[in-house]
Write a structure and sequence with these properties.
By secondary structure, the chain is mainly β. The protein is built from one helix and ten strands. The longest helix has 9 residues.
Length: 134
C-alpha cells in the first residue's frame, strides 16, 4: 500500500478520520449480494442479516453501519459472511458510499449522523517543494 500515488496527493485507503470513539462490530452479510466494497453503508434487514443500503433503506428506522472491509457474499451461498463494520465513528468524507457506489445524499448523511457516524475532511498537508533546490 502506497500512501502517495501521485506526488503531493494523499489518498489513503483507511476510512477513519479520527480513531477515537470508533465503534467496530461484526455483522453477518446476507448471501447473494455479490462483492460489497469497503466503505459501503449497510442496513440490518428484518431477518437480522445486513445488506448494502440504497438511499431508500438509509432511514431512521433501520440500523446502519459502514463496512470496514470488502466482503464477497457470493463465496458461500448458504452461510452468512461476517464482516467488520463501523457502528459509530468519525469517517473521511468521500470514502463512504451507498449500494453500488452511489454517493451519499445530505439526507443520508443526516441519518448516519443521528446514529453516530459523522464525516470529516482529512487533515490537509501543505504542498511540498519536490525540487532539488539547484
Amino acid at each position: 500500500m502506497s500512501m502517495y500515488e501521485v506526488i503531493s496527493t494523499n489518498n489513503p485507503e483507511y476510512l477513519l478520520a479520527d480513531p477515537n470513539g470508533a465503534d467496530l462490530i461484526a455483522i453477518p452479510c446476507k448471501p447473494g449480494n455479490g462483492k460489497i466494497n469497503r466503505g459501503t453503508v449497510m442496513y440490518r434487514g428484518a431477518d437480522g442479516m445486513w445488506l448494502p443500503a440504497a438511499a431508500a433503506e438509509s432511514v431512521d428506522t433501520n440500523s446502519l453501519a459502514v463496512l470496514d472491509e470488502t466482503v464477497d457474499t457470493d463465496a458461500n451461498a448458504t452461510i452468512a459472511e461476517d464482516a467488520r463494520a463501523f457502528r459509530a465513528g468519525r469517517l473521511i468524507a468521500g470514502k463512504v458510499t451507498l449500494k453500488d457506489g452511489a454517493a451519499l445524499t445530505a439526507a443520508v448523511q443526516l441519518v448516519l449522523r443521528k446514529q453516530g457516524i459523522v464525516f470529516d475532511q482529512m487533515v490537509n498537508t501543505d504542498t511540498f517543494d519536490n525540487s532539488t533546490g539547484a
